[in-house]
Amino acid sequence: MNIGPIKRKSCIGFVNQVMHSEPYHLHLIPFESALWQERIKFRDLLRSDKSIFEQYAKLKQELAVLHKEDREAYTQKKWPFIQQALLSNNPQKPYKSRRYM
Question: Are residues 97 and 69 in the same domain?
Answer without folding.
Answer: yes
